[in-house]
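Cross-check.
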Amino acid sequence: MSDTERIHTDHAVTRRLGNWTTAGRFEVRTRYGQTTLDLRSPGLPAEIEVRLDLDRGVVKLLVPEDATIEHQDLRWSGRGQVKDHQAPAEASARRIRLVGRAAGSEVRVRRGGVAIITAMLSPEYVRDVRQAHRNGTYPTVDDPARTLEKAS
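Predicted model, tokenized:
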């Protein structure tokens, strides 16, 4: 696998949106905070492992519509769950494995239009639109599959 991205959120909000990495492993530690990870980029490997260490935290995963989320290896204590209301009926080549522990926490999976809206309702999207306008390119936070080519 590729390099490992480490993200630590403590009593704060952390967002990683758009084409921000090519890593295949993520270590996310969230304590009384919220972390949003955009895993829709075509530059990411087909198999991704997200190692969670959550304590009363929320992790939002923005994933492709056909991605399969495996969370059998995630240990829970207290209340909490993985919310994936739009999970595909059949497994696909894109696989995201959640491992680690979660205490009184929640993992929310966002797909398709909901993932796009989640990305667009962030300060990072506004900065991306302004930068794209200055450079004459298209924004990529809302749709990481969009290339950075020049706008006509």
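The mean pLDDT is 92. Residues 40 and 64 are 5 Å apart (CA to CA). Passed to J.P. for a second look.
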